[in-house]
Amino acid sequence: MVDSRFFKVSGPFSLNELEEISGAKVGGDSENRTKMFADVAPLNAAGPGDVTFFEDIRYSPALAVSKAGACLIREEDAAKAPTGMVLLVTPQPLRAFARVANAFYPGGADGVGVHASAVVDASARIGEGCRIDAGAVVGAEAELGDRTLISANAVIGPGVVVGQDGFVGACASLAFCIIGERTYIHPGVRIGQDGFGFIPGRDGHLKVPQLGRVIIGDDVEIGANTTIDRGAASDTVIEDGTKIDNLVQIGHNVRLGKGCIVVAQVGISGSTTVGKGVMIGGQAGFAGHTKVGDGARIAAKTGVIRDIEPGAAVMGYPSVPVRQFFRQVVALAHLAKKKDA
Amino acid sequence: MVDSRFFKVSGPFSLNELEEISGAKVGGDSENRTKMFADVAPLNAAGPGDVTFFEDIRYSPALAVSKAGACLIREEDAAKAPTGMVLLVTPQPLRAFARVANAFYPGGADGVGVHASAVVDASARIGEGCRIDAGAVVGAEAELGDRTLISANAVIGPGVVVGQDGFVGACASLAFCIIGERTYIHPGVRIGQDGFGFIPGRDGHLKVPQLGRVIIGDDVEIGANTTIDRGAASDTVIEDGTKIDNLVQIGHNVRLGKGCIVVAQVGISGSTTVGKGVMIGGQAGFAGHTKVGDGARIAAKTGVIRDIEPGAAVMGYPSVPVRQFFRQVVALAHLAKKKDA
Amino acid sequence: MVDSRFFKVSGPFSLNELEEISGAKVGGDSENRTKMFADVAPLNAAGPGDVTFFEDIRYSPALAVSKAGACLIREEDAAKAPTGMVLLVTPQPLRAFARVANAFYPGGADGVGVHASAVVDASARIGEGCRIDAGAVVGAEAELGDRTLISANAVIGPGVVVGQDGFVGACASLAFCIIGERTYIHPGVRIGQDGFGFIPGRDGHLKVPQLGRVIIGDDVEIGANTTIDRGAASDTVIEDGTKIDNLVQIGHNVRLGKGCIVVAQVGISGSTTVGKGVMIGGQAGFAGHTKVGDGARIAAKTGVIRDIEPGAAVMGYPSVPVRQFFRQVVALAHLAKKKDA
Predict the structure, then answer these.
(1) Which of A69, A39, A74 lies closest to A56, judged by CA?
(2) Residue A233 predicted with pLDDT over 90
(3) pLDDT at C32
(4) How near does any CA of chain B get to the CA of A157, in Å?
(5) Which of A1, A22, A10, A29 is nearest to A93 (CA)?
(6) CB-based contact A70:A87 (threshold 8 Å)
(7) pLDDT by residue (tens digit) across C72-95?
(8) Is the pLDDT of residue C41 over 80?
(9) Cβ neighbour number for residue C91 with a 10 Å cutoff
(10) Residue B207 φ then ψ, to 5°
(11) Element holding C89 (H helix, E strand)
(12) In this predicted structure, what is the pLDDT of residue C201?
């Protein structure tokens, strides 16, 4: 299933190990506890040596004929599984499956050390077990925590800090930033360039100096070719656990709270503040200086030009509550039909 | 016309050669078949040694006074040309002109070989006549087909395959992908990073391992700074002949059929399937898991949240048939006017 | 306030020097002209040695209790300042503050010279006082004006010209372009790749050769990961003083007039012409071959599919005058409400 050209499989794992990894419990008769499982696979492709999962009721027919050796499954669905399949019972099969798949495919770097063609300033502080790939550049006084990987042709600017167990993708560039632990910076990301701050004028737009930084928390992920400008007076801040997709633009002085999810091609203008656990759909845009409350949900393509209440679900441009958006869609379709008649 | 600082001209070409290259036929009396043509140029800038074309009726006045030595033209337009101009008659003048211009300016690389500062793993397999520019990095077990060009500071990850006559632009990064022949990857493209797959949760968003690849066909073009994530369980697939513009986002497990055209800044969310010959306007967006039928036309800025029938032409958010979209635009303008009165 | 890890402060400056730098005049009794100021800071963070500014009336309470040593302020607001604060009177406090901050933090490069790992072609012409960082590549016959900085892993293609006092960010790539003086190219920018020009056809989309260049004026700024394609027959042109934000797409043969401001994620399709001093909000899009008049204002997310008059302010998709847009928003909300009743 998985292409061994690109992915190295760990394991095999026993049922006891799978219980421990997944947090699930083997249901029914526990029979042969020493049976080993060698891989993960979807329901329809799994064989007797594979672990799969079942969570979405629409896949019941596939479950009924699946050849998988073991299946992560909810207790109430156990009766749908074919006989002979080992059931690993858990209230959250997909979540448990992700843990199992991460155990089979831990990823991570092979080897450590600095490639001969990398350029690391003598004053940079490099932690234990780091790997710095070909052509990467690490500037003066920069700091890398232990086990951090800097990919080929990435550029870590002077003074930049990347916490331990970090990953910086190929051709990414980091400047004027302090980054937490276990952060994952995808290829081509641009962090810390000076923001878009101009005072318009007839004799030219005057640039405002951008003297802040970018501060990124722990367990943050930043998608490929995403851009995050540094602050003007204060800092641009991305808090712990927030996940940002590809090609997102984050302006100067933006603050994103903990645990947000920001889908691809979103644009957040300068000085906008987003609370905790906010979900933002793809291609949504935010005017500058707006405030978005905790737990708000912003649909894809929404244009936010006023503050959003905590917990609100909004859509459209300018944004309105999602239900109102769809009422408007229906009303407009009806109106256009009537005019035809 | 063309700046010789950047472009090297081939030729000159005789009328016989131009017939062969363009597929057009010299109309009227064939006179001096040995006359040579040295360059291409637009109608208004072409001189006696240049080849031009006429296809759009709005340029008839320019044609009447053009000094071009030869013109690719439809038979029915031949009478509009000034006397003395050699006419190369073809039903598709622009298409024929593109072939002629490609002959005068074949582009392609000068020279072959691996630059001294490139880093090519000893286990990589490099075809005949490849060129690998300064600072490029080619990983372990990677394979480059014959005559493929890897530009400066590009990064080809371990195991990646690029078919023959391929081009990879400056600072692009490729990982976990298999790429066909005659593909053109522009600068800054990101292929194969792991997709945006998280299971949201209160105690943090759990990452789902992304164990698929990116499979790209023959004659595909990928625009600058576009991002294509690798698949989660299955692969992300771009089929033969599809052309993708700049800054496009393609999520994990997306499948794009043959011969699609995807304009800049489009975003296609995970697991969406697009048929053959689909045209997608700029900044359009697709929700995940939608299906778009063969030959559909999606207008710029459209937001697709439901499946689209084959051959449909849609616009708006949520998308509706293009005619309905414009009826709604008119109805709304009318409604707003009435309210003012 | 400002992190000395990243920013080196100049100064201190005397009141006389601050008058000269800012164009402001010390108001009231001039007292101790030899007092020195060491830094800039916002109203609420400034101390006795800092220069601040006051322009927005909403910050009057912060001004009343500010500890700043000196404040750039309008004459009519002077009475709001606490006693003892030195007032630097000017009609444009923010503009004056930008000049002062630029004096304290001039930025710019330390040191000159070509890093040992940079690859500079022997035929390239490098001006006085240039700096070329690690891993950068400068191609044959390229020209860099005096004091230009090429950042790490950037790629300057053959024949490219960058005028004096230019800046090219990390991992940017420039090709087929001529760039003026004092231009600032952010990291990851892609300039000069061939544009998206295909003639669609059943037996494949035929590529039209792109034989133009990109011509960029003086004092232009191009944001991170922005892409600018070269012209097809004529050139793509960005005129003097225009500022472009991150992740913007500029198609082939586009012409942007002097002093435009283009916010992040805007897309401008091929052959569109934009006049002088046009302001374009984030995520706006332009169909190909449209004309936008001088001084027009295009709101964020607007979709321009027809020509825009000089001085017009438009919004929506398709674009309408801003006032009409909001009238339509109100009319539609009202209609949807009525239907519910």
Answers:
(1) A74
(2) no
(3) 67
(4) 17
(5) A22
(6) yes
(7) 999 999 999 999 899 999 999 999
(8) yes
(9) 11
(10) -80, 135
(11) strand C86-89
(12) 77
What pLDDT digit, counting tens, does each position of C128-157 carry?
A: 999 999 999 999 999 999 999 999 999 999
- Structure tokens that stand for A315 in this block: 């859509």
Edge-to-edge strand ranges of the sheet holding C177-179: C125-126, C143-144, C161-162, C177-179, C214-216, C236-238, C255-256, C273-274, C291-292
> Taking CA atoms, what residue in C is nearest to B115?
C119
Inter-residue contact B95 to C201 (CB < 8 Å): yes
The structure tokens listed for C177 are 């372009």
The arithmetic mean of pLDDT across residues C193-202, rounded, is 86
User: Position A159: which residue type?
Assistant: G
Exposure class string for C289-326: b at 16+ Cβ within 10 A, else e: ebbbbbbbbbbbbbbbbeebeeebbbbbbbbbebebbe
Please indicate whether, in this complex, the C-beta atoms of A249 and C259 are within 8 angstroms of each other.
no
Residues C171 and B210: their CA atoms lie apart, in Å, by 27
Distance between A214 CA and the closest CA of chain C, angstroms: 11
Q: What is the pLDDT of residues B298-340, one digit of tens each?
A: 999 999 999 999 999 999 999 999 999 999 999 999 999 876 5
Q: What is the mean pLDDT of residues A10-34?
A: 86
CA distance A203 to A181: 46
Tell me the pairing of strands C198-199 and C206-207.
antiparallel
- Answer whether A171 sits within 8 Å of B158, measured CB to CB: no
If one looks up domain C13-104 in CATH, what number appears? Answer: 3.40.1390.10
Each residue's pLDDT tens digit, B80-103: 999 989 999 999 999 999 999 999
Q: Which residues of C are catalytic?
A: 252
For the domain B175-323, what is the CATH code? 2.160.10.10
Q: How many Cβ pairs closer than 8 A exist between chain B and C?
A: 169
Separation of alpha carbons B271 and B267, rounded Å: 12
Query: What is the identity of the amino acid at C246?
Result: N
Placement of tokens 């800046």 in the chain:
C167
Smallest Cα distance from B202 to chain C, Å: 32
Alpha-carbon span C37 to C54, nearest angstrom: 17
- Residues B155, B157, B158, B160, CA torsion sign: negative
Distance, CA of A178 to CA of A142 (rounded, Å): 10
ipTM of the complex: 0.93
Structure tokens at B325: 């979209």
Average pLDDT over every residue of B71-88:
94
What is the rounded distance in angstroms from the CA atom of residue C80 to the CA atom of residue C97? 18
For the entire predicted model, the pTM comes to 0.94
For C273-312, list the strands marked E by DSSP: 273-274, 279-280, 285-286, 291-292, 297-298, 303-304
Inter-axis angle of helices B322-340 and A322-340, to 10 degrees? 90
Q: Do domains A13-104 and A175-323 have the same CATH topology?
A: no
The amino acid occupying position A243 is K
* Residue from C264, C300, C294 nearest C277 by CA: C294
Cα→Cα distances C284→A125, A237, B287, B301, C256, Å: 43, 26, 20, 9, 15
Crossing angle of helices B15-22 and B93-104, in 10° steps, is 120
CA distance C297 to C322: 9
Please say whether the beta carbons of B277 and B295 come within 8 A. Answer: yes
Residue in the structure block whose two tokens are 């050139």: C235
Check: CB of residue B283 under 8 Å from CB of residue B300: yes
Q: Choose among B107, C132, B197: nearest CA to A245.
A: B197
Q: Which residues in chain A are contacts of C107 at CB distance < 8 A?
A: 209
Domain locations along chain B = 13-104, 175-323
